[in-house]
Design a protein that fits this description.
heterotrimer, A alpha/beta (about 260), B mainly alpha (about 325), C mainly alpha (about 300), A: about 260 residues, alpha/beta, Rossmann fold, 9 helices, about 30% strand, B: about 325 residues, mainly alpha, ABC transporter involved in vitamin B12 uptake, BtuC, 14 helices
């Protein structure tokens, strides 16, 4: 029997109050790919992730993780929320935050112990933050905070990852670290969906692309999907393409 | 029943009290709208609690129960409180809500200490000060009411005169500064107006519930309109109506304090607004959501039909 | 002996409030705590009218229920478009008003003194004792607050990691399958129970001071949640003991003095905390500037 796809979403619609933000989204994410979710502001990129994780109510549609509802498959899913979504003044240190990634596996009553600590240290090392384990989280830079969040997702030991704008407001070193990490996850056969803003790096970082603007504009391998034509459809008239040989620079007018 | 109504209103003293409470509701409703739009609703609550030590100190120093002195004491305490809240949020990682709660409770705690000192010392005319916690409009004398009426009228007049400035300040203080408005001064002025409303209101509704007169009418009014002018007037009307009902029920002889009744009256108006207001109200929202679902379904059916047609054409 | 009971009650109240207060401060829900502490009043009165006694258990249940109703209403109004602080203000003033009206209506049937409800009378605690099998086992208030504290400690011991992650990152908590709403309402229930257990000694309004001021002080002193809770409890206990002393010195309200002392301790931490105090931070900034200009 063929194994079910990591993520299949059917007919998903989400509305805040009256205004629909996502309509009739249907797609199947293939295994072992890095998938960039791209689209203009307010296109519903973060909403798609949140709806898939059941964090916001759906108007209609269904979500399946490896063929089963999300509530049965939580341990297979890792999540990196937007960095601004938490209060970094919280009194805790980096190691402790990474250990939170193990809470789902611990169940109701077990407490994190030495095994969890060891795993968390490994994950911190992978993102190059082992030296900062005991550092209070408000004393970390934006990029370092983002890496802590990535380490926490790694600690979840998932097969399918959702990352909400991990590249926003990070330094070049962190950006590189994230890309290395994404590729490592890929070689391990894991599937990663990343909400992404920077059109210039899409082709470089991801092998599959989803173009989103309230509806699913296009979804497929980057070479065939990330085309001028599709981008024009996703962004409407707000896009100008400048061709420079084989590399094309893309300008988004207005607030990109 | 109708006779009782009339009898109540024929008593000149009752008339004065009723008039005073309505003006109070009107004034605090008006200034409360600006507080609400500036997202400072609970500032009124904090200022009301913070007023207690100010009022007590004013009483201890002067030994008399004069509204004017209380006003000065409360205003001073209010300024210290707002400064304290600002200082805590600016200089530490403590957030606005905790800062507000800290200042509110510590000031109120100090106020209670002073209040019990006054009561135990025996020198204080008790009946005056402990009414401050819940208010007792019936115990107000005519000169109190006149002063209250004058102050409320001034409050409303200031809001009317500076309507344009307050509007811009509530909407976009940065832009107001760009236009050369004295933003800091106007902000302090709004704060001062809130303090004035609080001090005037304390006698009628008390320290604890004064916040309701500033918040509830404004929130209710917001439900009905998208226009600031309409909202301010409506909020004032709702406040005045609450004052009327509260005073009436309280005065009709069952010994219930005016403050809680006024607050309950405005809460009833709030609930009515929440349920029945057009566009924002609960009923219309339920209808809207159902409409969104229907629209989506219809759209989908339309698309399906179109696809089917196309397929048939292709065949 | 009576002094001992009073101080013990104060310390128990401070501990219970200090623990749940930490989570309120960290979750930016200090004002929700304020709202709950006001709105338990009608819960207490209704429980009293139904059960006909000042039975602690009935009151605790009544208060916990009304506390949850408060939180639910606040969230519901907020979701329907009212600003969050305004919805807090509307809900607690309305419920508190109901409570005051009920007290005034049934004032002959209830020996609930409104002043006592408002600012507590910890001084009367030692005389209101309960007997078990004919033996005096100590003041009622001590048992009430003690039970509430035991409940808090037990739940915290079992679910520390859940409370922690729900405060830090609720979205993540929900994503890994922790029932965030359950723990939210559990915390709010604990706040209500703490409030009602404490109201006899510190009063419904000043409870918020005990809920917020010691945790905020602790927040300025440490970077670890566990330590923050411990410091908060210690600071709360210190305020209640010192507050009692101050009150007997000044012949004034004990609860008021407790909060005033807590406020004083907060001010000390605000100015002199080694890590977050205003003065040390200013000094450090100056040193850094000097350092930079020197190099």
């Amino acid at each position: 029997m063929k194994r079910a796809n990591p993520l299949s979403i059917e007919d998903l619609s989400v509305a805040y109050q009256k205004k629909p933000v996502l309509r009739d989204i249907t797609f199947e994410a293939p295994e072992g790919k890095l998938i960039g979710i791209v689209g203009p502001n307010g296109a519903g990129k973060s909403t798609l992730i949140k709806a898939a994780l059941g964090l916001i109510p759906r108007l209609s549609g269904s979500v399946a993780i490896y063929g089963k509802p999300y509530s049965e498959q939580r341990k297979l899913v890792g999540y990196v929320p937007q960095r601004e979504s938490v209060d970094w003044d919280f009194p805790t240190n980096a190691l402790d935050v990474v250990m939170m990634g193990r809470y789902g596996h611990l169940g109701w009553f077990r407490r994190p112990g030495t095994a969890e600590k060891k795993r968390a240290m490994e994950c911190l090392e992978k993102v190059g933050m082992a030296d900062f384990a005991g550092r209070q989280i408000s004393q970390l830079s934006g990029g370092q905070q983002q890496r802590i969040f990535l380490a926490r997702a790694l600690a979840q030991d998932a097969n399918l990852y959702f990352m909400d704008e991990p590249f926003v407001g990070v330094d070049a070193a962190t950006e590189k670290a994230i890309v290395t990490l994404l590729n490592e996850l890929k070689t391990q056969g894991k599937t990663v969906l990343v909400v992404h803003h920077d059109l210039a790096t899409v082709k470089e970082y991801f092998d599959w692309v989803m173009l989103l603007n309230e509806r699913l504009i296009s979804f497929g391998p980057a070479e065939t999907t990330f085309t001028a034509d599709n981008l024009q459809r996703a962004y409407g008239g707000k896009l100008t393409m400048l061709d420079h040989g084989d590399r094309s620079a893309i300008l988004v007018s207005g607030r990109g | 029943m109708a006779g009782e109504w009339l009898a109540l209103f024929r008593d000149p003293n009752a008339q004065w009290i009723l008039f005073g409470c309505m003006l109070l509701g009107l004034g605090s409703g008006v200034i409360g709208s600006f507080a609400y739009l500036r997202k400072q609703s609970l500032m009124g609550d904090a200022l009301a609690h913070a007023a207690l030590p100010g009022v007590c100190i004013a009483f201890m120093l002067s030994g008399s129960k004069s509204i004017l002195l209380f006003l000065i004491g409360a205003a001073a305490a209010g300024v210290v409180a707002t400064f304290g809240i600002g200082f805590i949020t600016r200089h530490t990682r403590i957030k606005q809500d905790a800062a507000l709660a800290i200042v509110l409770s510590v000031f109120f705690g100090i106020g209670i200490v002073l209040l019990t000192r006054i009561q135990h010392s025996g020198a204080g005319n008790q009946s005056g000060l402990d009414k401050f916690l819940f208010g007792q409009a019936a115990s107000m004398v005519r000169s109190d009411v006149i002063l209250m009426a004058v102050i409320s009228a001034v409050l409303i007049a200031v809001c009317a005169l500076l309507f344009k400035e307050f509007k811009l300040l509530s909407f976009d203080p940065g832009f107001a500064r760009g236009l050369g408005y004295p933003v800091a001064f106007l902000e302090q002025l709004i704060m001062l107006l809130i303090v004035i409303a609080v001090v005037v209101g304390i006698q009628a509704v008390g320290v604890v519930l004064m916040a309701a007169l500033l918040i509830t009418p404004a929130v209710s009014a917001r439900y009905w309109t998208e226009k600031l002018g309409v909202m301010v007037v409506l909020s004032g009307v709702i406040g005045a109506l609450s004052g009327l009902v509260g005073t009436y029920v309280s005065a009709s002889g069952n010994n219930l304090p005016t403050g809680p009744l006024t607050v309950l009256a405005s809460t009833v108006l709030f609930v009515v607004s929440v349920v029945f207001a057009p566009r924002r109200g609960l009923l219309s929202k339920v209808l809207l959501r159902a409409a969104a679902r229907n629209e989506l379904r219809r759209e989908k059916e339309f698309l399906l039909a179109e696809r089917r047609e196309r397929r048939e054409e292709a065949v | 002996m009576s002094t001992f009971w009073i101080i013990l009650t104060g310390a128990l109240v401070a501990s219970a409030c200090g623990i749940v207060g930490c989570f309120l401060v960290l979750r930016r829900m200090a004002l929700v705590g304020d709202a709950i502490s006001h709105s338990v009043l009608p819960g207490i009165v209704i429980a009293f009218l139904i059960s006909g006694s000042r039975d602690s258990l009935a009151m605790m249940l009544g208060a916990a229920a009304i506390g949850l109703v408060t939180v639910f209403l606040i969230q519901w109004f907020h979701q329907s478009g009212v600003q969050s602080d305004a919805s807090i203000g509307v809900v607690f003033t309305a419920l508190f008003a109901v409570g005051v009206v009920l007290v005034s209506l049934y004032t002959r049937h209830i020996d609930l003194d409104l002043d006592c409800v408002l600012y507590g009378e910890i001084a009367y605690v030692p005389w209101n004792t309960i007997e078990l099998a004919g033996i005096d086992i100590g003041p009622k208030a001590v048992w009430g607050v003690g039970i509430a504290l035991a409940l808090i400690l037990a739940l915290l011991f079992l679910f520390y990691k859940q409370f922690k992650i729900c405060s830090f990152d609720p979205a993540m908590a929900a994503a890994v399958g922790i029932p965030v709403a359950l723990f939210h309402y559990l915390l709010m229930g604990l706040v209500s129970v703490t409030t009602v257990a404490s109201f006899e000694s510190v009063g419904a309004i000043l409870v918020v001071g005990m809920l917020v001021v010691p945790p905020a002080t602790a927040y300025l002193l440490t970077e670890k949640l566990g330590r923050m809770i411990a410091y908060s409890v210690a600071i709360g206990c210190a305020s209640s003991v010192l507050g009692y002393g101050l009150a007997s010195l000044l012949d004034a309200s004990i609860a008021g003095c407790m909060i005033a002392v807590a406020g004083g301790l907060f001010l000390v931490a605000l100015l002199f905390s080694p890590s977050h105090g205003v003065i040390f931070r200013k000094l450090r900034q100056k040193r850094m500037i000097r350092h930079r200009t020197a190099s």
